[in-house]
Amino acid sequence: MLAQPAGTPVEAARAARGGPVLRVEGATLQYKTHRHLVTATYRVGFDVFAADRFILLGPSGCGKSTLLKAIAGFVKPVEGSISLHDRVVDRPGPDRMMVFQEFDQLLPWKTVRANVAFPMVASRKYGRREALERADHYIGLVNLGKFADTYPHQLSGGMKQRVAIARAMAMEPDILLMDEPFASLDALTRRKMQDELLSLWHQVRCTIVFVTHSIEEAILLGNRILVLSPHPGRVRALLETRRGADGLVPSEDFRALREEIQQMLFGENIVQEGAGI
């Protein structure tokens, strides 16, 4: 008789996929302004596993973006540690690629193809010919094959974000870090980009850490959601989304989880988010 896994079904499933890709342990992060030393997060800890769509959710100022920058290696914890595959993160590296909110993250003098190929060539991970071939492949995955020879100023905001995602994914990083990449888009384009990101994830099964302050976006995109308190960010809860056979969160579960998170973050002062998320 086979031994049964201990713990809850969630714990059993987690054990089956092995150890974490990313581990954040008791991370306190600070940064300086011209007047103050700001504590962005206080003793935050969590694990991210392979193929997670892991969401960092919380109100503005809770340290979400600072935490993402620390995972990327741009900010060092003053307390605690961050490790990737059991190696302490102490600097940026091509094993962690970021997609930012801003539309101007592309090189304006390079075509879409050249933008996507650039980090592969610059890091010497691939030769120029192979980098261009891989660039075309990932440009195709984000449905921009017809625009490979165009320049950023000829693209819409959503198209620019697709290029940024293709560029990051082409490097095949251990983790794709996304800092509110759809926040500056109009509501319809934002929803389309969310659907396209899910579709892309189903094709490549990459590991994503995604920052948002939208509860709806967190539930729609994430399989695991870390809820952070207002400044300084502390862990309020780590939630797992239950999805149906179609990969979507059933509407009743969606509403219940949204209300739970709203109550957690706002208590009696609940503010409904826009419907076009």
TrEMBL record:
PANTHER family per the UniProt record, alphabetical: ABC TRANSPORTER ATP-BINDING PROTEIN, TAURINE IMPORT ATP-BINDING PROTEIN-RELATED
Family recorded in the similarity comment: Belongs to the ABC transporter superfamily.
Alphabetical list of CDD domains matching this protein: ABC_NrtD_SsuB_transporters
Alphabetized GO MF terms: ATP binding; ATP hydrolysis activity
InterPro entries for this protein: AAA+_ATPase, ABC_transporter-like_ATP-bd, ABC_transporter-like_CS, ABC_transporter_ATP-bind, P-loop_NTPase
One Pfam family this sequence matches: ABC_tran
Protein name: ABC transporter
Entry superkingdom: Bacteria
Keywords for this protein: ATP-binding, Nucleotide-binding, Transport
Record-linked SUPFAM superfamilies: P-loop containing nucleoside triphosphate hydrolases
Record has Transmembrane helix as a keyword: no
Transmembrane regions: none
Domain (ABC transporter) ranges: 22-255
